[in-house]
Design brief:
NAD binding; binds 3-amino-D-alanine; seven-stranded mixed sheet; NADP; alpha/beta
Length: 339
């Protein structure tokens, strides 16, 4: 019993995390097909004590597939996502290809599950559901419970994004550069074209006409779609920092209604998928290392924004594993909702 699964991009950082999460959550599939580019086809991947051979992704890969998890870049999703849907599969796409397409649900299960209402395995047709950008997921996991209570009017986000967001190769290069710099050697700069170790820089996404980069505009546009609120004001500055796999984000919120910090802390303590780490006496607050390889998004530094009148402003600090809740876990949770 259970759905037949396909994992597209299985050899990448998120693809590998799909397998870990499927196992950790004992996802009830009846069969699984591991798909990747021609270059990776033939590789063996061990999963649940079996050795699987990676198959080359082709148009015929989706015959008989119920759910296809995609994380192989936007061009692969654009080419093969519609083919998979045509074959009757429900695609959960981690790329940005379809996120802003009208009618494509953009889903964080703890935040807006209703957006995928009615989409189920066995409904007789395929569908496509988009996984939001990792920095959006991590931010909104914390901001949404507060938004639901006091309606966010304006959100200012500064992100400190991990290497994993740029893939496994970037993680390897960060480690390599760190060793090289410590040994007094010139750093190898293939992925980011500049030194990453002991440094930080504006996110590597292309910068648009308005001076924002694509990562920042994803935060703006995806927040409005997920909250179904085209009026909420959002601005973001996304920075790449020398951290392996968890994003950190400083979030400033301005509310329509008052929300004091104690109430905010209680709301967050009861929010699904959230861990509050907010101990002022010991200066213990969320860190990337503390959330790495974990499901929970950690929130701390919860305090009234003293630059705003009364209790209409709040500052928080959020950390979440980019590969897990920022991508693979969120996608598998969506797949669980299809059963
Ligand atoms: C990043 N959000 O972190 C992008 C890719 N997932 O670079």
């Amino acid at each position: 019993t259970g759905p037949s699964l396909a994992v597209v991009g299985v050899t990448g950082a998120v693809g590998q995390e799909f397998l870990s999460v499927l196992s950790d959550r004992d996802f009830p599939f009846r069969s699984i097909k591991l798909l990747a580019s021609k270059r990776s086809a033939g590789k063996s991947v061990s999963f649940q004590n079996h050795s699987f051979t990676v198959e080359e992704l082709t148009a015929d890969s989706f015959n008989g597939i119920d759910i296809a998890l995609f994380s192989a870049g936007g061009s692969i999703s654009k080419e093969f996502g519609p083919i998979a849907v045509e074959k009757g599969a429900i695609v959960v796409d981690n790329s940005s290809a379809f996120r802003m397409v009208e009618g494509v649900p953009l889903v964080i299960p703890e935040v807006n599950p209703d957006a995928m209402e009615g989409i189920k395995v066995g409904m007789g047709r395929g569908a496509l559901i988009a996984n939001p950008n990792c920095s959006t997921i991590i931010c909104l996991m914390a901001a949404t419970p507060l938004h639901r209570h006091a309606k966010v009017k304006r959100m200012v986000v500064s992100t400190y994004q991990a290497a994993s967001g740029a893939g496994a190769a970037a993680m390897h290069e960060l480690e390599l550069q760190t060793r090289e710099v410590l040994e007094g050697k010139p750093p190898t700069c293939n992925i980011f074209k500049q030194q990453y170790a002991f440094n930080l820089f504006s996110h590597n996404a292309p910068v648009l006409e308005n001076g924002y980069n694509e990562e920042e505009m994803k935060m703006v546009k995806e927040t409005r779609k997920i909250w179904n609120d085209m009026d909420v004001k959002v601005t973001a500055t996304c920075i790449r920092v020398p951290v392996m796999r968890a994003h950190a984000e400083s979030v400033n919120l301005q509310f329509e209604k008052p929300l004091d910090e104690d109430t905010a802390r209680e709301i967050l303590k009861n929010a699904p998928g959230i861990v509050v780490i907010d101990d002022r006496s010991s200066n213990h607050f969320p860190t990337p290392l503390e959330v790495s390889n974990k499901d929970g998004v950690a929130v701390g530094r919860i305090r009234r924004d003293l630059s705003q009148d009364g209790n209409h402003g709040l500052d928080i600090f959020v950390c979440g594993d980019q590969v897990r809740k920022g991508a693979a876990l969120n996608a598998v949770q969506i797949a669980e909702m299809l059963l």
